[in-house]
């Protein structure tokens, strides 16, 4: 249960320990819960509490904008967990069997309006939540998710969505056992994006007409997006990790904080 874990007090020794390991201020040591709690951001729309569901698995989220290294870290975490004897499932946006392919195809036309885009992403999430995430948690799997509702809400909010409306849509989401936010500055993000293929239409916010070219639009859009992530890091108690560290150091930090969360960890 992410809120309970992150609002607990942190001793001075713990702060020094985390700063020494490259973790940013405002984070705290994760503590193990017996199972993923039936704690939601809004209503229990699927009636899990009424059915007295037991979720012995763990839900672990990596968040951050494109180019920060989320996918790289998940690729390193999965074999580590599997070699430790845990069954692992990973999921990410647009992998819903119901609408994933349709969403990708619709985005290719560059004609989606913001409301349609938001509803597409919401449908994709709810389908994956019901068909992939919950079954895996019920079966005791470790669920690694490359972005969760936070990226979806951030993208919607920078496109002008009503905050109460968008939060109500994702209110059915379980609170994860841990949310790791790979934080990066805008100027450090640009060279990473260029190395990975350059500026993409939607990740540059070109649908919002924020600039005359991809670069100008990217800078404006990502600045707004990063601002939303920083606000959410406080509101949702993200575990903030400096994404500018070497890949190997980041994954060691993640392992150190995931291990106590695992069953018998």
Give a written overview of the molecule:
- The structure is a single chain.
- The chain has 265 residues and is α/β, with parallel strands linked by helices.
- The protein has one domain: Rossmann fold, CATH 3.40.50.300.
- 47% of the residues lie in helices and 10% in strands.
- The chain contains 10 helices and 5 strands, in the order H-H-E-H-E-H-H-E-H-H-E-H-H-E-H.
- The chain has a 5-stranded parallel beta sheet, sandwiched between helices.
- Helix 3 packs across helix 10 and helix 5 packs antiparallel against helix 6.
- The radius of gyration is 18 Å and the shape is globular.
For the sheet with most strands, the description reads: 5 strands, parallel
Instruction: Tell me the domain tally.
Output: 1
Average residue pLDDT: 86
Fill in the CATH topology.
Rossmann fold
Q: How are the strands of the biggest sheet laid out side by side?
A: 2-3-1-4-5
């Amino acid at each position: 249960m992410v809120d309970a874990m992150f609002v607990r007090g942190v001793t001075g020794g713990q702060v020094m320990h985390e700063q020494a390991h490259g973790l940013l201020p405002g984070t705290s040591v994760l503590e193990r819960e017996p199972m993923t709690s039936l704690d939601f951001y809004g209503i229990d729309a699927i009636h899990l509490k009424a059915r007295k569901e037991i979720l012995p698995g763990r839900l672990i989220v990596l968040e951050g904008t494109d180019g920060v290294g989320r996918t790289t870290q998940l690729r390193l975490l999965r074999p580590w967990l599997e070699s430790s004897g845990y069954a692992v499932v990973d999921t990410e946006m647009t992998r819903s069997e119901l609408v994933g392919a349709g969403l990708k195809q619709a985005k290719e036309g560059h004609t989606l309006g913001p409301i349609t885009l938001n509803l597409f992403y919401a449908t994709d999430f709810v389908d994956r939540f019901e068909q992939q995430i919950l079954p895996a948690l019920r079966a005791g799997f470790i669920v690694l998710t490359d972005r969760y509702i936070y990226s979806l809400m951030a993208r919607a909010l920078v496109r002008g969505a009503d905050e109460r409306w968008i939060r109500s849509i994702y209110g059915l989401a379980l609170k994860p056992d841990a949310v790791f936010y790979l934080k990066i500055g805008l100027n450090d993000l640009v060279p990473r994006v260029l190395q990975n293929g350059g500026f993409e239409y939607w990740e540059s916010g070109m649908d919002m007409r924020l600039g005359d070219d991809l670069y100008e639009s990217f800078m404006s859009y990502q600045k707004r997006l990063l601002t939303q992530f920083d606000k959410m890091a406080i509101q949702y108690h993200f575990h903030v990790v400096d994404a500018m560290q070497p890949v190997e150091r980041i994954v060691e930090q993640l392992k150190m904080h995931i291990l106590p969360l695992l069953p018998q960890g």
